[in-house]
Amino acid sequence: MIIVMRSGAKKQELKEVLQKIRKLGYKTHIIHGVERDVIGAVGDERGKARLQSLESLAGVEKVVPILKPFKLAGREIHPEPTVVNVGKVGIGGAGFAIIAGPCSVESREQILATAEAVKKGGAAILRGGAFKPRTSPYSFQGLEEEGLRILAEAGEKYKLPVITEIVNPMDADLVYQYADIIQVGARNVQNFALLKILGQIDKPILLKRGMMTTIEEFLMSAEYILSEGNSQVVLCERGIRTFEKATRNTLDLSAVPVIKGMSHLPVIVDPSHAVGHWQYVLPMSKAAAAVGADGLMIEVHVHPEEAFSDGLQSLKPEKFRELVREIRPFVRAAGKKL
Ligand code: PEP
Ligand code: MN
After folding, report:
1. One domain for residues 294 and 244
2. 218 and 310: one domain?
3. Which residues, 6+ apart, have CB-to-CB distance to 177 below 8 Å?
4. Mutate to test the pocket of ligand 1, among 99, 103, 105 (most ligand atoms within 8 A of CB)
5. Ranges of the chain whose pLDDT falls below 50
6. Could you tell me the CATH number of the domain that includes residue 54?
7. Residue 34 has what pLDDT?
8. Has residue 265 been placed in a domain?
9. Which of 26, 37, 247, 307 has the fewest CB atoms within 10 Å distance of its CB?
10. Are residues 54 and 124 in the same domain?
11. Structural contact between residues 210 and 270, judged by C-beta atoms closer than 8 angstroms
12. Comparing C-alpha atoms, which of 148, 150, 146, 144 is closest to residue 131?
C-alpha cells in the first residue's frame, strides 16, 4: 500500500504513522518528496484492510494500493529515476556508464594490461569474472579468490571501481571484500536464496536478465533484493534465447524503454553476451545508447584469441576505444552525457 502524507504534515505525525505501519508487520520505505512524503508499506497482502484504516490518522491524506506486483522496483511509489553510485560513478539519471574488461580474470598481467587499456579507452568500471558460471564443468571455472585479489589491485591502480560475479551464496563475504558492485549472472537471476543475501548487504548489485526471463519476472527478481533493504540495483539486458542461431542470444532492446516505463531502476545493456561475436558489438552498442540505456557492459581482452572464455565476443582495446568514440552521438541523442 502507498500512504500519502498531507503536504505540511509534521515530523511527529510521520513518525507515528511509520510506527503504526511497522507494528502491523510491514516494512516501510519512505520517499521524501518536495511537496509531501510518501510511504510504501510492503508486506503480507492480507493486512490491506488494516493499513487502509491509517487514513484516519493526522497527517495522512490517503492510502492507496500498489497495483503492480513489483512494489519497490515499480514507479508507483518511486516515480523518479534511481541513480546507483559505484564509487564516484553514477549509473542512471543523465549519465552513461561504461563497464569494460575481460570475461574472466586470467592472470595478473592480463588484468593489469586490460585495466590500463579500458581506462584509456573511456571505461568507468572494470569487469572481470573470478567465479565463472560455465556451461561445462570441464571449462575454466575462474581463479576464485586470487582472481578477486588481482582484479581489485588492477582497479586500485587505474582508479576504476570493479565488478565481479557471485555464483555461490557462500562466497558473499569474500566477494563483498573485493568488489565495488556485485554481479548476478543470467543463470542466477532466479536464485532467490542468493538474491535475499545480496538484499542484506550495502553494496550495489548488477542483476542480469536470464535468457528465459520475462520482464515481469526480471523485475520480481530485483524486488527480492530491494525488499531485503538494498536499494542499489542496476538491471542489465543481455539477450534472451529465441529460435535465432546467427547470434548467441537475441538482444531484446525493447526491454530498455519497456523496463524504464515500469521501473525507476537504471538499465544497462551487455551487447557482448547478447550477440556472441565481436563484430556485432559496436552496432548494438549504438542502438542500446539510442534507446536510452544508462550504460553498457563490454567484454574487452588484450589478446582475444588467447582468452580462456568468450574470446570470440571480446573486443581488442583499439576496437573498444573506437566504440566509445562512435557511440557518443547516440548517447547525446538520447539526452545523456558521456
Ligand atoms: C558474464 O557477464 O561474464 C556472464 C557470464 O554473463 P551472463 O550471466 O549474462 O551470461
Ligand atoms: Mn563472458
Report:
1. yes
2. yes
3. 148
4. 103
5. none
6. 3.30.70.1140
7. 83
8. yes
9. 247
10. no
11. no
12. 144
Same domain, 162 and 304: yes
**Cβ(271) – ligand 1 distance below 6 Å:** no
Clarify whether residues 204 and 146 are in a common domain.
yes
In terms of pTM, does the model score above 0.85? yes
What spacing in Å lies between the alpha carbon of 323 and ligand 1's midpoint? 20
Is any ligand 1 atom within 6 A of the Cβ of residue 103?
A: yes
d(CA 260, CA 78): 12
Q: Which residue do the cell numbers 586500485 mark?
A: 156
Nearest ligand, CA 127: 1
Q: Is 78 in the pocket of ligand 1 (CB under 6 A)?
A: no
Full domain range(s) for residue 212: 84-333
Q: What's the pLDDT score for residue 49?
A: 86
In a domain, 327, yes or no: yes
Answer for the pair 218, 260: CB distance below 8 angstroms, yes or no: no
Residue 75 lies in a domain: no
How many separate domains does the chain show? 2
Task: Note whether residue 77 is domain-resident.
Answer: no
In this predicted structure, what is the pLDDT of residue 44? 83
